[in-house]
Design goal:
Elements: E1 8-15, E2 24-33, E3 39-46, H1 47-56, H2 63-85, E4 91-94, H3 96-101, H4 105-113
Parallel strand pairs: 3-4
Antiparallel strand pairs: 1-2, 2-3
Helix pairs in contact: 1-2, 2-4
């Protein structure tokens, strides 16, 4: 069995409380992995990354949009991170540079929201 074969159940638990100090929007998840204890994971999507995703889909850069981006992107990033390294840290950060490092990330978001340019 490979790391990619381990089934993940990623459950969105809600947004963070306030993103004004950290310049990132937090999405909280509970991750269940077969044979392992559940893990709470907070995904922080910094504002430049959220704005990049929002602009790609023709959306504005406002708190509601950033929260939705964090929810969608967080789920994707948890799955991709687990597939790559086989474990999850309690806090994952997605920045604008993450999209340069992982060129397939935007396409994964498009597939998740079923939108084509």
């Amino acid at each position: 069995m490979t790391v990619a074969d381990v089934e993940l159940v990623i459950r969105y638990e809600g947004p963070g409380v306030d993103d004004s100090l950290q310049a990132a929007t937090q999405a909280n998840f509970l991750v269940l992995r077969y044979g392992h204890a559940a893990v709470e994971v907070a995904v922080l999507v910094n504002h430049p990354a959220a704005a990049y995703v929002a602009s790609t889909f023709g959306q504005g850069d406002d708190p509601e949009t950033r929260a939705e981006v964090a929810r969608i992107l967080g789920r994707i990033w948890i799955a991709r991170r687990h597939a790559r390294v086989g474990r999850l840290e309690p806090i994952l950060i997605v920045s604008r540079a993450t999209f340069d490092e992982d060129p397939g990330l935007m396409e994964a978001i498009r597939q998740a929201v079923n939108v084509r340019p």
